Amino acid sequence: MKKKAPRTLDLDREVIAVSQVERAGEKSASAEQTSAPTQNTVSRIIRIDAKPESITIDTAKTAVIVVDMQNDFGSIEGMFDRAGIDISMIQRAVAPTARVLAAARKADIRIIYLKMAFRPDLSDMGLRDSPNWRDHERMGVGTAVHAPNGTESRILVRDTWNTDIVSDLKPAPADTLIYKHRFSGFYQTDLDSKLKSLGARYLIFTGCTTSVCVESTIRDAMFRDYSPLLLADCTGEPIGYGLPRGNHEASLLLIETILGWVSSSEQFIKALESPAQSA
Description:
Layout: E1 45-48, E2 55-58, E3 62-67, H1 71-74, H2 79-82, H3 88-92, H4 94-106, E4 110-116, H5 131-138, E5 144-146, E6 152-154, E7 176-180, H6 191-198, E8 202-208, H7 210-223, E9 227-236, H8 247-259, E10 261-263, H9 265-273
Parallel strand pairs: 3-4, 3-8, 4-7, 8-9, 9-10
Antiparallel strand pairs: 1-2, 5-6
């Protein structure tokens, strides 16, 4: 029986066709990557230990995506905490994510923060009988609250304490912030066009929650032919937490099986600190 060759990425293969389709206010869902200029002047090839096998990436064509690591999900008195949801697993993801971001900045890898938030009039929350409206209304979205920092705020509304990034992961001036109003970071946002402008092909995922916004964004990244790698210790999921096998573990299995790769902060940082490989 022939041994199956490991799945590796061909760094020399470039897809040059691109289809630009405007539909319902959303950027094209085309999976084809453009040959846009890369974000760094020097390519550095690294290999990251991952499941189902290692992945080789070019740091000049890589971006780190931080999904929804904001006060409403990861801080005391945020939306989740007010609803009585255990946020301990999200809070545990903060420290390894901070180390990943520090290493990425040192390596000149671009960082993009996604923030789940609605306009003040909630006009982008969808139809009133839609699942998106129903589920967020149950969580009190739009409710006025007094934030821990002393400001008047509103649950899951743009430009408030509730949708600020948690204090230990504050963006740097060079980082990109993109608001989204659905679980996927690609839906009706500039994420795809931003990544194309950077020449990005490899996406390192961190953030919350694993089986909702993180997995949704990874699915859409895979549909567009990006290569997503999730760092398992940099994400967390309250749904099913504490069960023998919760949604977090199910999402990791799904991602490593068909949607991309799964690794850890330690392996990512180790690869960045290792000698560069030949292209």
